[in-house]
């Protein structure tokens, strides 16, 4: 129920958290486009103007609702350490673990789904993949082909994630993590450390 004293008291931390909780619920269950700010405000029990006050716009609210406990790159840092010959398996296991987790998985799926229909969000996902994961993998590999190998690796990895968690392509969507790793990791590792073109075709 909307708090009629909200305007008199001014915005509070609790009202911001209620907005975020309502936004996460609707964005993650119904999608970005299907939900109105007025509906989110009603669920949170606040005036819709408070959303603009705190977040500026629907996109601003969406970005805040997707905030994760840690930067995705931070989650991969330990996977990037260690033997390069097992790098693909470590990265793949860490990504799948993060996407399968009940806390971090829904925001990531919502982000990826929104990226397919919202121009600014597909730019956001592209920049994150390029500036974070791709660059980190390239730095770990070294050598003249590092950037190209990292770009192909990142593209194939994101394609797998999209197919498994957003498109729900079978049987990949239903495979246990160990099966996905057993089937896919050797192919990804070939990109990282296998033979490479000496020049562009």
Automatic annotation (TrEMBL):
<protein>
    <submittedName>
        <fullName>Transcriptional regulator</fullName>
    </submittedName>
</protein>
<dbReference type="GO" id="GO:0000976">
    <property type="term" value="F:transcription cis-regulatory region binding"/>
</dbReference>
<dbReference type="GO" id="GO:0003700">
    <property type="term" value="F:DNA-binding transcription factor activity"/>
</dbReference>
<keyword id="KW-0238">DNA-binding</keyword>
<dbReference type="InterPro" id="IPR009057">
    <property type="entry name" value="Homeodomain-like_sf"/>
</dbReference>
<dbReference type="InterPro" id="IPR041678">
    <property type="entry name" value="TetR_C_16"/>
</dbReference>
<dbReference type="InterPro" id="IPR036271">
    <property type="entry name" value="Tet_transcr_reg_TetR-rel_C_sf"/>
</dbReference>
<feature type="DNA-binding region" description="H-T-H motif">
    <location>
        <begin position="36"/>
        <end position="55"/>
    </location>
</feature>
<dbReference type="InterPro" id="IPR050109">
    <property type="entry name" value="HTH-type_TetR-like_transc_reg"/>
</dbReference>
<feature type="domain" description="HTH tetR-type">
    <location>
        <begin position="13"/>
        <end position="73"/>
    </location>
</feature>
<dbReference type="Pfam" id="PF00440">
    <property type="entry name" value="TetR_N"/>
</dbReference>
<dbReference type="Pfam" id="PF17920">
    <property type="entry name" value="TetR_C_16"/>
</dbReference>
<dbReference type="InterPro" id="IPR001647">
    <property type="entry name" value="HTH_TetR"/>
</dbReference>
């Amino acid at each position: 129920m909307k708090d009629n004293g909200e305007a008199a008291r001014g915005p509070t931390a609790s009202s911001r958290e209620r907005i975020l909780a309502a936004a996460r619920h609707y964005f993650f269950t119904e999608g970005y486009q299907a939900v109105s700010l007025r509906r989110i405000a009603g669920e949170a029990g606040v005036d819709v103007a408070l959303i603009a006050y705190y977040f500026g716009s629907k996109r601003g609210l969406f970005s805040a609702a997707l905030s994760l406990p840690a930067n995705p790159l931070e989650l991969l840092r330990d996977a990037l350490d260690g033997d390069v010959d097992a790098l693909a398996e470590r990265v793949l296991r860490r990504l799948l673990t993060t996407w399968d987790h009940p806390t971090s998985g829904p925001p990531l799926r919502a982000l990826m789904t929104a990226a397919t229909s919202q121009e600014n969000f597909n730019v956001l996902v592209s920049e994150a993949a390029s500036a974070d994961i791709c660059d980190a993998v390239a730095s770990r590999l070294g050598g003249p082909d590092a950037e190209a190998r990292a770009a192909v690796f990142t593209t194939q990895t994101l394609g797998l994630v999209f197919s498994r968690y957003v498109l729900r392509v079978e049987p990949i969507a239903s495979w246990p993590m160990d099966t996905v790793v057993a089937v896919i990791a050797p192919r990804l590792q070939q990109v990282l450390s296998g033979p490479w073109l000496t020049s562009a075709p």
